[in-house]
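Re-running the complex after MR caught last week's input typo. The corrected sequence lines follow. Everything else is unchanged.
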Amino acid sequence: MPITEREEHGKDKVSFRCSDVGPKNCEWQISGNSEAEIMPKIEQHGREKHNMKIDEDTRKKVHSAIHKKAA
Ligand SMILES: [Zn+2]
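Corrected-run output:
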């Protein structure tokens, strides 16, 4: 039976790698149950480790770099 993609499925996990947006040599990554859950941690990491300003543009980059993966 083929596995169908269901974007609105509540149990999809999300993951994010810092190097997709920030410095390529940063190996920090995070995963969680939703974008809303990990976003604050991504912002905190960016601020504390890279002195990144988290503005709307940065959020867009982060948003497009967050990967959904099946649980
Ligand atoms: Zn980083």
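None of the earlier attempt is carried over here. The first strand starts at residue 13 and ends at 17. The pocket of zinc ion is lined by residues 18, 22, 26, 28, 45, 49-50 (CB under 6 Å).
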